[in-house]
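Morning run. Coffee first, then this:
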Amino acid sequence: MSDERQRGKSAIDAVHTDVSKEDEAKIGAKISEIYSVDSEEAIEIHANYHAQRILAGLERRARQNGMTKKALEEKMEHLAVQEAAYQVATGQLAEPAAIDILFRNLYIMESKGGDNDRYVNFYG
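And here it is:
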């Protein structure tokens, strides 16, 4: 970081540069320092950061498979995005894995229980 302290998303992006899943859990302390908040709030900030990234990844993947943004938004309430983001923020789950799991759940909802995500096609 430069002499001028970074804040917001750019500060969290900087902390995430080349971070492994195992190091995710340690980032909470850095976020706590950046924002001058306690560890509980730091984890919440960290989870919210990952929730935004997970949502963007899900949206991109759903769009690539023919699902409209509106259809995705309608199904989002049935996905545990915040829980997955918390698991990523605490180092229990890698972000790409969270996106894969949530996309698979989205596919299962859309296909009414079908389980083939290789050639998924949404018509929402």
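Residues 119-124 have pLDDT under 50 and may be disordered. Good start to the day.
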